[in-house]
Amino acid sequence: MSLFRPIRKVIQFFVDKSLAPGVHIDNRYQIIKLLGSSSFGLVYKCKDLQKNQMVAVKQLRPTKQKFKKEVALFNREICMLEQLNHKALPKLLHSFSGNLGHFYVMEYIDGKNMEEVIFEEKRVYDGKAALEFIRALTEAVGYLHRHEIYHGDLRIPNIMLREEKPVIIDLGLAYGEKEDFVARNLSSILKSKKTQEERKQDDYHDLGDLLLFLLYTTFEKKHKKALPWTEELQLHHSTTNLLKRLLGIDVPYSSINEILEDIDVAIEKL
C-alpha cells in the first residue's frame, strides 16, 4: 500500500467535511441531509427553494477540485447525464460552480438503496424475481450503451429501488464515446485504456455478478467446504448458461438484445 494513501485519507477527513443541514447552496438548495459519499463526491438531499421540491445535489470533493483530471471527470459525468432520459436513470436538472465548489443537481430518487434492501431488510430474491430484476437493469444498461456510455461500476450500492424497479445511480466511473467530450476538451485529459468492446463486456460481467448475488439471497449453506456456484445453487440450465456467458466463462454475449432473449428463456423455464 502506498505511503501517501493514509495521508490522503486524513486530508480528506479534515478538508472534505460534508456541508451541514440547513446550509444554502447557490442561494437555492437547502441541505436536508447527507445521502452518501464516495472517494469522488458528496451527495445531499436538498430542498429546491425555487420549485419547492426535493432534489439530490452532488458536490465534487474539495480535495479533488484542484486537479484538472478530477474536474474533467466531474464534467464528463454531467455531460453524460445531459444526454439521458430514462426511468431507470436519474435526470439531470442543473449544474453550476461557486464559492463552495462544483455541483450538479439531479431528481431525488424516492426509494431505497439495494444495500439497505438486501443487508438490512434481508430481502430474498427467488429465481424468477432475480431474473426479472436483472432484465429491467439490462434494459437500462442497453439504453446507456445505445448512447455509447458504459457504466463500469454496476454494483449493489449503485442501484436504488423505486416502486420495486431498479434505478442506476452514480456515473462517476462511467465512460462515454460521444464527440461531445471532444468539444468540451475532455478527451485529451480522459484517455481510455480500454476498448469499447472491453467496456461493454465489463458491464455484462457486472450484470452477471449482480444476478449471482441476488440468487444467493436464497442460499442456505449445507456444507462446510465452499463449492463453486454451479454446485451450490440449484439452477435451471438456461439460467446457468446465461450466467456463464455474462461472466465470460462461456462464449460472451455480443449484444444486449441477445442477453434479453436468454433472460426471457430462463424466466419461461421456471
Automatic annotation (TrEMBL):
SUPFAM superfamilies: Protein kinase-like (PK-like). InterPro entries: Kinase-like_dom_sf, Prot_kinase_dom. One of its GO terms (molecular function) is ATP binding. Residues 29-270 form the Protein kinase domain. This is Protein kinase domain-containing protein.
